[in-house]
Amino acid sequence: MPHMRRRCFALLLALVAACTRPHEVAAFSLFSPSWGDVIVVTDMTRAGRQVAPATPDAPVYYRGRTLGSKLGSIPGDREPDERRMGKFVADVLARQGYLPAVGTDREPSLYLVVQWGHLQPGYGDLYWFLGYNAADDIAAPSFPGMLGPEVFRRGFRTRENETILGTASRPIYGIIVTAFEYVSASTEKPIVYWQTRIGLPAQGKSMADALPAMVLAAGDSFGRETKAAVLKNIDLVRKGRVEEGELETLGIDEPSADAPRPDRR
């Protein structure tokens, strides 16, 4: 039976190719040309709320490191160049008023750590990563492992919660940017100000193509508390034919140790 299914699938592809004009063959794909929404969440600590967010008119200076694909990778995936991707992130941050202190006489007030990768369901907490909060879900289970009256409320879930729950059940590409108070960053008790996390289903994409678009789509959420996960239409960014490395801004150093997770307060 599996052999028969493979033959039927091969015949289907052959039929599509035969019925498609030569110039259309290259455009055929088994995956949707639309990537939909990227999920963005920025958590902020009490200490972070005491600091004014950066703006282009009132910039905040930083130093930082990129950890590359510390969150995970899979064999055969096409990954972005680590240093060029770090520069790309720095350029997007600069648009929001976060500027590198490297090459200036400015004292940095933040230490930023950037990392990304491929995350699998069940490995780590994708619900936390994507900003899911059961208290904001009208159909969240009342008792873990048991069905209750909430099943009749599933049709009333917000689009954000529907998207998070659907995305958390599939492999995703993820990006984390964590901001530390600069002086404490090198101590045993670093002070976290904020953390921005970005997630997008990985199916039908490569890491090299997805990450730059994810960063651009999430741009105005860096360093700005979202309270809850927000959805950004990544296809609007992709229309600009984003390519990592085309933007040049320095300020990200070489890889180092992992960044801790900020407390939710």
CA radius of gyration:
21 Å
| Element string (H = helix, E = strand) | HHEHEHEEHHEEHEHE
- What is the helix fraction of residues, given as a range? 25-40%
Sheet-strand content, in percent, reads 15-25%
Structural class: alpha/beta
Q: Total number of helical segments? A: 8
Principal-axes shape call = globular
What's the end-to-end separation, in Å?
Answer: 55 Å
Main beta sheet strand tally, sense and closure: 8 strands, mixed
Short description:
The chain has 265 residues and is of the alpha/beta class. It has 2 domains: 1-30; 31-253, no CATH class. It has 8 helices and 8 strands; from the N terminus they run ααβαβαββααββαβαβ.
Question: How would you describe this protein?
Answer:
The chain is α/β, with parallel strands linked by helices. It folds into two domains: 1-30; 31-253, no CATH class. It has helices spanning 2-19, 22-25, 46-49, 82-95, 126-129, 159-167, 207-217, 234-238; strands spanning 37-44, 60-66, 98-100, 110-119, 172-181, 192-201, 230-233, 252-253. Strands 1, 2, 3, 4, 5, 6, 7 and 8 form an eight-stranded mixed beta sheet that branches. The longest helix is centred in the first third of the chain and has 18 residues, at 2-19.
Secondary structure topology:
Elements: H1 2-19, H2 22-25, E1 37-44, H3 46-49, E2 60-66, H4 82-95, E3 98-100, E4 110-119, H5 126-129, H6 159-167, E5 172-181, E6 192-201, H7 207-217, E7 230-233, H8 234-238, E8 252-253
Parallel strand pairs: 2-3, 2-4, 2-8
Antiparallel strand pairs: 1-6, 1-7, 4-5, 5-6
Helix pairs in contact: 4-7
